[in-house]
Amino acid sequence: MPIIINLDVMLARRKMQSKELAEKLGITTVNLSILKTGKAKGVRFDTLEAICRILDCQPGDILAYKKE
């Protein structure tokens, strides 16, 4: 898939665990894991906004495009 999810990188930079982010987002750790591994079919803008607010980052810090 040409869309790369760098959520693990941002979590490491912010010294935050996935469980803590999932709790703050109000989603399950399973759903967060699906997003982190790139297995999600999509992400809602309000979820992306909340991730950026919590991690104090931009969408481009989390999502990247790479040609196949």
According to DSSP, the number of beta strands is 2
Helix/sheet category: mainly alpha
Oligomer: single chain
Major β-sheet, in short? 2 strands, antiparallel
Approximate helicity band = 55-70%
Strand content: 5-15%
Tell me what the structure shows.
This protein has 68 residues and is mainly alpha-helical. The chain has one domain: 434 Repressor (Amino-terminal Domain) (Orthogonal Bundle). 56% of the residues lie in helices and 9% in strands. It has helices at 7-13, 18-25, 29-36, 45-55, 59-62; strands spanning 3-5, 63-65. A two-stranded antiparallel sheet has the order 1-2. Helix 2 crosses helix 3. The radius of gyration is 11 Å and the shape is globular.
Short description:
The chain is mainly alpha-helical.
Characteristic key phrases:
mainly alpha, single chain, globular, two-stranded antiparallel ribbon, 68 residues, 434 Repressor (Amino-terminal Domain), 56% helix
List the helices and strands and how they pair.
Blueprint: E1 3-5, H1 7-13, H2 18-25, H3 29-36, H4 45-55, H5 59-62, E2 63-65
Antiparallel strand pairs: 1-2
Helix pairs in contact: 2-3
